[in-house]
Structures are given as C-alpha cells and as structure tokens.
Description:
This protein is mainly beta. 9% of the residues lie in helices and 40% in strands. The protein is built from eight helices and 56 strands. An eight-stranded mixed sheet has the order 1-2-6-7-8-10-12-11, with no helix packed on it. The chain has a six-stranded mixed sheet with strand order 5-4-3-13-14-15, with no helix packed on it. The chain has a four-stranded antiparallel sheet with strand order 16-17-22-21, with no helix packed on it. β35 and β36 (519-523) form a beta hairpin. α6 packs parallel to α7 (211-218). The longest helix has 17 residues, at 71-87.
Amino acid sequence: MTDQTNSSGHGETALSRRGFLGLSAIGLGVGLGGAAWGPWPGAAVGAPRAADAGELRFVVLTDTHANDEEIVRLDNLRRVFAAVEAEQPQFVLHCGDITDYGSDAEFGAYRDAIPPGLWDRLRHAPGNHEIRWDTSARERFQRWFGPTSYSFDAGGVHFVALDPTQALQEPGLFGDDLAALRDDLSAARGIPSVMFLHYPIAGRNYFVNDTDELLRTIAPFDVRGIFAGHIHRSEIDRFNGLTQVASVATRSGPFYLRVTARDSPQGRVLAVEQVSLGATDADAPTVAPLTEIPLEAPPGGAEPIRSGVRVREGAIDLTAVAGRDAVAVDVRVHPQSVFGTVDDGVWTALAARGSSWHGSLDASMLAPGAHRVQLRATDGAGVRRHDTVQVAIDRPSGARAAWELAVGGQLQGALAAFGGTVVAGSTSGRVVAVDVAGASAHRRRWTRDLGPMHRGAAFTTDGSLVCLPGADHRLTALDARTGAVQWTSTFDKPVMSTPAVVRSTASGADRVLVAAEDRLRCLDVTGATLWEADVPVRTAGRAASDGVRVYVGAGDGRGYAYDLATGAQLWSFLTNERPDAYRQLIYGPWDDWVEVLPGGAVLFSTVTDAIAVDPATGAELWRVPGSHMFAPALTLGDGSLLLTTEWGVVSVVDPASGGTRWSAQAVPRVVNAGPVIDPRTGTMWLVSVGGLLAAIDPVKAAVVVDRQLFTANTFSTPVIVGGQLVVAAQDGVLRGLTI
C-alpha cells in the first residue's frame, strides 16, 4: 500500500478498491482493467493537526442529510459546525449520510455550512444516502472528500474509515475490502484501533450481510472502538472486545459527540459525551456522558466461542464452549431474509453443563441448503461475544447443485444468455462466458477483464456480440464466441445501467440502447453512435423499445419516450407528486426495467406502483399498487403478466386492464433479481435477495419454497438454459442447478 496525500499535505493510507472506482475518468491515471493504489491529489478529506502529540480530542457526527431545498436543516448544520469549530478539535469524524441523495448541489450546500477553518479537519465515510441513488456516487464523493476507505494515526490511536456501502443498493457489504483492512491493521499491530463507518454492526443490526466476516477479520487485532450512524439514535453496544457507539442523527437537531482521551484506573480510555446545543445560540449546550471506550484492556467478549454442530432431521444440535465469564449462551439461525434493517428476533438459550453449553434449534421449517447459525455469549456485565458457524440442511429439493464457478468480486448484474452460453460480469471487472449443456454439464468458454460491472450484459439478436456496461465509463462489445473486444463506446460518466438490444422497425437492424447517468445513447452493432438524448437527473434501469419508440424511467419521477430513429423526446408523464427533488427521485422509475407489454402498452414501475401507459401519448391506462420496480415483469405463455414486488409477492395480472387474477407470497424480499420461466414446464423460478429459491406454478397459483442456495445476497436475475438454472451472487460465485 502507498501513502495517499490530500490537498492539505497530510498523509493517509487508502484501504479500499472502492476508493478508486472510476478514478481513471478524472485523470488519476488508474489502469482501466483494474484498481491500483496511487497518490490522491486535490481532495480535501482533512487530517489531524497534531498527528501523534498532545491530548487526543475530536468530534463525531453523522447523518447530517444536507439538502439544498431544506433551509431549516442547513441552518441547523451551520449552528452545529460553528459550535464544533469553537471546540477546536484535532479532527472531526463524519459517519455518513452527509446528504439526502448525493447531488453536487447538496454537497455544495453541506460545504457552505462548514466554517473555512474547520473544513480541512473533517474526515468523512460515505453513507447509503450518498451511494444508493447515484450512478456516479463514488466519483462524486471522491471529488468532494477523497477516498472512501482510509486510515490515519492520531494521539496514539489508529483510525480507520470503512466503506461497506454498495453502488445502487441499500444495505452494505465489506467483500474484497476485508483483505485490505487486514493488511492495514497488521501494519498497525500493537496500536489500539478505532473504526468509523455508516452502519452499526452485530447485535440486532443486519445492515451488512458479511458482518460475521468482518468480525473474523478484526479478531486478531486491537480494535477497541467503532463509531457509526444510520439508525438516527444513540446506542452503545459492547461485544467482541470493543465498544460500538451509534450516534443520534445531526439531521434531527443540533447534536454531536465530543470524544476525549484520558487516563483511568483501567488504563487509557476515550470518554464520549453527547453535546446538544440550546434552542438559541444564547442558551448553554447540554453535555451528557454516554460511555467510555477502553483503549488498553478490552471490555470483554474477546474469547471466541468454540462450537460443535450436528444436523439431524428437523433439528440442529449445538455444543458451545464460551469464555469463562459467560453467564448465558444463546443461538439462532441467521435471519437471511432480514435485509438492511434491525431484527431482535428469537434466540434459543443453551443449557450449561459443566464448562460447556448444549441445546438444539428447530430446523423443521428451514429450506434445505446453506444456513448460518449465530452464537451469542453474554457475561455478567452484559458484554457479548458474537460468532457464526455454517451449517447445511441436506434434504431433497427440486433444484440440485450441479456446478460452481468462482469468478471473484461481486456478481451483481443480471445474467445474459444466448443459446447455451451464459455471460456474467463482476464488480472486479472479470467477465466469464460459460457454455451450459444438458442437466448438469458446463464448460468455461472464455474470460475477459474489463472495468467493474454492476449491471448485466446483453446479447445482440443474432448472438454474435455481447455488450457489457462498465463503471469505467465504457460500454464494451465482445465477440460472444471468443471474448475478443470488438468495440468500445466511452461516456463521461459510469455506465451503470443494463443495455437493451432492440430491432428497429424502420431499418430492420439492431440498436443498442444504454444510459450513463443522464445520457441515453443509441448505437448500431458496429459501436457507432446514432444519437444521444438527455435523461433528467439519472437512470439506472434498462430502456425498452417497441421498434419505433424508446422508453426510459428517469430520476425526476417521470417516464419518457424518445423516437428510436432520431432520439427526439416524444412525451413524458409524472409517476408521482412528491414535494421535492429527493422524493421524486426515490419514488420514481429511475431504476426500472421498463417493459413493452403484449398489446403494446408500456409498463413503468416505481416503489409504489406499476403503471401501464399508452405508447403513443403516455396517457395512463392502469395502475397496480406495490413496489414493483426492483423485479422485471415477466410475460407468461398465455399472454398474462407476472408482477413481483420488492416484498416477494407475485401477482398474475391482465396486461390489458391490470386486473389481478391471483396473488401469493413467494419469498421474503426481491431486489433486482426477477423471476425466470422454464419453457419446458412453465414453472417460474424466483430467487430472493437472501438466496432463497422458490418454484411458482402459474396454472395452479402455487408456490413451493425449494432451497436456500447460499448465504450471500443476490441482485442478479438468473437464467434458464436447457435443464439448468444458472444463478449469480455477491459471493462472486456462479452456480448451475439442475431443475
């Protein structure tokens, strides 16, 4: 790793591959084929003014949610930052959700609320609100603040900013960044470390799916504290040898945390106080002690839980050996269906028997497949140890594992298939093509390394080319047979939408439609640009076309139609009447796979409705309530339409009227992973965001939960080739299942 240097001349170390997503596009000389560490010029991330000397005193705040349309909130921020500057801290940690949705206008409003003398002491970690709704999110964050993951030393403490946020997604994932974190903590071994990030972890916090991997990564090191935000309330938790402080949101009022190092009978500690400003500047602030973070001796929970697991019919038997101070040991199956939220759940107490703990979990309702069991040991002071063990439930299911292929990174976009070939792209930049045959056979056809991919590929109609969108600002067309690059089309911004290949009615030729944030481009199969059109704010879904018009969901809450031949805008319609730009974005069709329905109507979906409109005028024809945006609609063999909500409810509707024929709960949650239909049987297969597979019989209106495929999350629509269901997940593994 090499030192990064910011505009104020202070050194820092970049930790994460996320820190340079798209850096090549802003002139930093990063190789397009992958990530590389290098100097960071011109980004004001701030630094402590006295790196290792004097009293350690700093401020923590979070969830400022700056919005240039919210004047009262900005006035609150100005008061907070003026008070913070008066304290003259060495530095200020911001735990993310700096803005509502990460626009430059919001970042500018936030910057204007900060006194000039304080700006170079601020250190930021991104929140989901900076990354979730912005296709250029990390590039924009980096221009304003610098790297998203980094570390620095101050006052004998090693500070680490972590970034588990995910492009275009609500929850977090550490993923490949854990290797860089391990290297960083190894270099700082012997120095107490404090991490700050947006999401609180462990306990009832299920905001980051691989928190268990993070805890395993940091276990050998002297991590003593975590500062976090996101939950908008103060919450103290002690576990695994550290103290976590989640802070109240500054958005909610004039609040921040004051943190001071001091000596105590137990050794050096960080004393954390919450400062609440008065109703007016003339009123004295209220200072309330919150907690102390021991920097030398851990508060407890440092001893791992050793466990033994035996799976039998209907039950999981467990034996655990916890730390000597444990007064209770509880277990539960990790709630894989819980996604980006808190969950208190139901824990089962194990019984003490000598020096060990014993008991069983009811597994009768668990789907066959991969599961995690969480173990929690609690000592007399309420300090906990969290550990996790993997288990497998072996029972027959309709889908049977046939093969696995480790690709690396996260497989995050929809899979593409033509004939017997399946193509998957990874956030690592790796693309693989796999030939699938029969019920279980597969063969890797080729591998290619491009820029990071967060959305799916698309074949041309003859199957000769496959087009891949890249966060490196490029759409790349590969020879589908060999993987050789045929052409690239370069954009000003990351290409974070799935391309659509359509046949023009006028020319009879293929047209490739793809968007890079606020620009929609139409290309021919040679890569020549035929036209470009503006898309207000941004789009991240997939365009659709009926051969005459192009339809796109936009970030201003509207659906748009363009002329396929010229790119001229034909009409738009407003999907919602929310009161400001932020809400029009998040309640609009910005991330929708638009669909042309049987009969010609066009379907735009949001997180509140599926809306069919007239293709010629944009006039609304019908509307079905529900969060349908995150799962593409599917036309069935009888011409009816399958809609899937974010909450896993499937409905068969009449495409002419929107009338519902039947509806059923299929899986707990669905995000960017729609259903696919087996043409041999008519059975539909749907994978939940948590990896739970369900089979849906549209004739009998029946749903059968089939298998828990993995413990990773998935944001990828699978494909069916022959007798195989091919599924991708965030663990970077492509899987073939015999169905």
